[in-house]
Amino acid sequence: MVRGRSCGPGQGELGVQPDHWHRTNTGMGHAMEKQMRERDEQTAEGTPRRSLFGIAAMSALGLFGIAATTARAQPAAADGPDWPGQLKGRHKQVFDVYGINDGFPLGFVNNFLTPNESATAVLIFRHQGLPYALNHAMWAKYKVGETLNIMDPETKAHAAKNPWLEPKPGVLANADTALDRLAAKGAVFGACSVALRGQSRRLSSNAGVTPDEAFKEMSANLIPGCTAIPSGTWGVNRAQEAGCTYCAGG
Which has the closest alpha carbon to 188: 233, 235, 234, 221? Predict the structure, then answer.
């Protein structure tokens, strides 16, 4: 019968001398440390070890928060004018006025506003509807009515002034469709700069000026409360983003 070797003083549980255990496990430990060092030389993305140390250092110093704050502090890129701005009222509608059509687009606007006590109308004058946005002086100087074949309901001749701006009593079938009356009800006006540029080229010769001169003068002589905007389609989008439903007003 073979008896197991007892664990005497200085021996481990399995009867292995401590100095032997230390040499064996120390060798294994060195091998494992070497593997870990080699593995730590690279991350799964191939990032150098020192980069990880740099990230850890930034995190420890709170530099990530500083970098994020700096990024958020950068000004936002310009995104055009703030138009039509904050609109009042529960009900909001944009009227895409792309033609004169004998004043009917303004009738559409009045029909929307009349039954609604809390409503805002946005009118965009573009394409052939751009002349609505010009004041009396521009109609007269550039012969708008004659060139574009727009008749004045008062004179029954080609309009030498804006027929829908401050008309005499009884001239319009419904006085509430006048541009100044709609403005008094809070309507917002926008004039398409693309159409303004196009009409300036078309009408400039009537006044003996260059297209650029006509554009500058017309831009400075819009009806009260009207704003020149980048384009009519741009305006339709901004008005809808501001909560407006859409109505074709040609």
Answer: 235
- To the nearest whole number, what is the mean pLDDT of the chain? 81
How does DSSP classify residue 95? E
Give ∠ CA 169-174-180 in degrees, rounded to 5: 70
Tens of pLDDT, residues 173-224: 999 999 999 999 999 999 999 999 999 999 999 999 999 999 999 999 999 9
> Is residue 130 a contact partner of residue 194, using CB atoms and an 8 Å limit?
no
Residue 92 φ/ψ, nearest 5 degrees:
-140, 135
Q: Which domains does the chain have, with CATH numbers?
A: 91-248 (3.40.1260.10)
Question: Are 248 and 99 within 8 A, CB to CB?
Answer: no
Considering the entire predicted model, what is its pTM?
A: 0.70
